[in-house]
Hints:
Sushi_SCR_CCP_dom; disulfide bond; Sushi domain-containing protein
Amino acid sequence: xxxxxxxxxxxxxxxxxxxxESVERRCRAPExxxxxxxxxxxxxxxxxxxxxxxxxxxxxxxEGWWARSICRNGVWVKEPQCVEEKACLPPDIxxxxxxxxxxxxxxxxxxxxFECKAGYSFNKPNNTARCIDGTWISVSDCVERPSACGRPxxxxxxxxxxNQHQELFDEYSKAVYYCKDGFLTExxxxxxxxxxxxxxxxxxxxxxxxxxLGTKVTEPSYIPIDNCGSHPLVPNGEPLVHRSDQLKYxxxxxxxxxxxxxxxxxxxxxxxELPTCxxxxxxxxxxxxxELILTKDEYILNNEKKEFECLSDKYLFKNYAMVRCIDQELxxxxxxxxxxxxxxxx
Length: 346
Ligand SMILES: *[C@@H]1O[C@H](CO)[C@@H](O)[C@H](O)[C@H]1NC(C)=O
Ligand SMILES: *[C@@H]1O[C@H](CO)[C@@H](O)[C@H](O)[C@H]1NC(C)=O
Ligand SMILES: *[C@@H]1O[C@H](CO)[C@@H](O)[C@H](O)[C@H]1NC(C)=O
Ligand SMILES: *[C@@H]1O[C@H](CO)[C@@H](O)[C@H](O)[C@H]1NC(C)=O
C-alpha cells in the first residue's frame, strides 16, 4: 500500500516539478493598510502562508480577528485587507441565495436586496438587508414554504437526476427518476417525471427487472455526472465539467491522452471507461551528454527539438547540437558551429 502510494505521489510530483519554472511565481509582500502581518519578508514562495491582524477599529475581510493568506502563483489568496469594524463582510443570510461574486466588504449603512433559496420565502414583504455596525440586519427572514417538498423519496433500483444538491423544492418543480440498467418503470420506460404538489411528490416509479429486450433497454443510459459522486482520478490528468452529463479529461503538459476523452456516469452509478495520460516527453539528464552544456535536466516534448550549446571546439567557435525527441527516444546530433550548420555541413 505504501509503495503504491509512493508511485502515485511520484507520478503526480513529476508534472508539478515540470511546471515549477513557468507557473509557480513568488508573491511580493502585501501592501496592508491598517494592519500587520507575519512573517515579514520581501517576497514569498508559492504556497507559503502569512498571518495578519488589523489595528484597533479595523478587522480582516474574512471572519475572525486574524486571518491567513496563501501565495498562489504570485497572488495572495485572499489579498489581505483590513476594513473598519463597522463595515460588513458579504452577507450570509440563512436560507437566502447569498451572492457568490459579491463585493469583499460593504460600508456601514449600505443596503442590499436578497432572494430566498428554492423552497423558502420571505415572512415579511421586504427583501432588504442593511449593514449596521458590522452586522446585516434584515426586516424579514427566509422561511420554509409550507407548499415546498423535501428531497424526492428513495426508491429501490432508481436514482434521481438532479444537477445541484438541494434540500427543498418549490411547489410545481420537477424531478426525474431513472431506473438502473436492466430495469424499467411500470410503464416500461427508463424514467419517470414527478412533481411537487403542495408538500408532496407525485408517485415515483416502481423499477422492476425488464423482461423484454426492447430498444429502450439497449439504449446507452447515462445520467448527469453529479449522481456518480466525485470525479475519478486520472494520474497526470484533469477532469473538466464539459456538460452536466459529461466530463472531459485533458492531460497535463508532457502527457498524452490515451483512451476516451469523454467520461460519463452510467445509470448504474459507475463511471464509463477512463482514459490514461501517458508520458509524452524525453528526459535529457544533466550530465548524460558530456559535450552539451546543461544546467539542469531538460524535458523535450515528443516530436519537438531543442538546440543546446556544446563545449567550444579548438578554434573557440560556439558549437550547438540539436536534440530531438522521437517516439520518446532522444536523438542528439553532432556538435557543430553556426557556419557548419548554415552550410548544412552537419
Ligand atoms: C526571507 O526569505 C528568505 C528566502 O526565502 C529566507 O531565507 C529568509 O529566512 C526569510 N526571512 C525571514 C525573516 O523570514
Ligand atoms: C452605521 O450606520 C448606522 C445607520 O446608518 C448609524 O446609525 C451608525 O451610527 C453608524 N455607525 C458608525 C460607527 O458610524
Ligand atoms: C425595507 O427595509 C429597509 C431596511 O430596514 C428600509 O430602509 C425600507 O424602507 C423598507 N422598505 C419597505 C418597502 O418597507
Ligand atoms: C402528503 O401526503 C401524506 C400521505 O400521503 C399526507 O398525510 C400529507 O397530509 C400530505 N401533505 C400535504 C402537505 O398535503
